[in-house]
Amino acid sequence: MSQKKAVILVSGGLDSTTVLAIARSQGYACYTISFDYGQRHRAELLAASRTATLLGSVQHKVVTLDLRSIGGSALTDDSLAVPEEETAGIPVTYVPARNTVFLSIALGWAEVLGANDIFIGVNAVDFSGYPDCRPEYIQAYETMANLATRAGVEGQALRIQAPLMNMSKAEIVKLGLTLGIDYGTTVSCYQATEEGLACGVCDSCRLRRIGFEQAGIKDPTRYQSGA
């Protein structure tokens, strides 16, 4: 019997790397996909490739998109500053429709591969308030995926798996360590340097740092001088 396949969305950050390790631990042959969408923190692409290799991805694919052409986010428009303090509401680091775009391409690849499962590292506990990280969104997208694909119509049920959805960042860190992840190889910072050094002050850095503190684990993140 052939090994079951899954497509894993990986960004090189803490959450998606943990999801990849979870999928691997569940016996999936993991096909990883990242997106070069014009993000200012391009160091994450190198981190994604690195962690995919370390965690045994069967194939790692980088898809190029130009989300800078529509802008609307501090991650795709250099005229918008990345907030360095916690902000109310949906922050300017939200990239319009990003997870919908990413999941749609991952869905297409899953059909080509004959994979019934797509894993994504969204979280609704310790997160920045993005609307496309909520359980309602994931459930709705899964329904759409099964309506919109040949695989779904022909009875090959497609599942969007978000195993971190209800976990705190500290719980994610602890789980990842049991799965053998070296979080020092990951990059979460929204404005990391080309070498992957984190700023230590953006929302993503703040959530990551708090996660290690609450887990009682030494933070392996490589920070910029003075961060």
Automatic annotation (TrEMBL):
Pathway: Purine metabolism; 7-cyano-7-deazaguanine biosynthesis. ATP binds at V10, S11, G12, G13, L14, D15, S16, T17, T18, V19, L20. Binds 1 zinc ion per subunit. Its cofactor is Zn(2+). GO terms for molecular function: ATP binding; ligase activity, forming carbon-nitrogen bonds; zinc ion binding. Signal peptide: none annotated. One of its GO terms (biological process) is tRNA queuosine(34) biosynthetic process. The keyword Transferase does not apply. It catalyses: 7-carboxy-7-carbaguanine + NH4(+) + 2 ATP = 7-cyano-7-carbaguanine + 2 AMP + 2 diphosphate + 2 H(+). It holds the Pfam family QueC. The keyword Zinc applies. Keywords: ATP-binding, Ligase, Metal-binding, Nucleotide-binding, Queuosine biosynthesis, Zinc. Its EC number is 6.3.4.20. Belongs to the QueC family. Catalyzes the ATP-dependent conversion of 7-carboxy-7-deazaguanine (CDG) to 7-cyano-7-deazaguanine (preQ(0)). PANTHER family: 7-CYANO-7-DEAZAGUANINE SYNTHASE. This is 7-cyano-7-deazaguanine synthase.
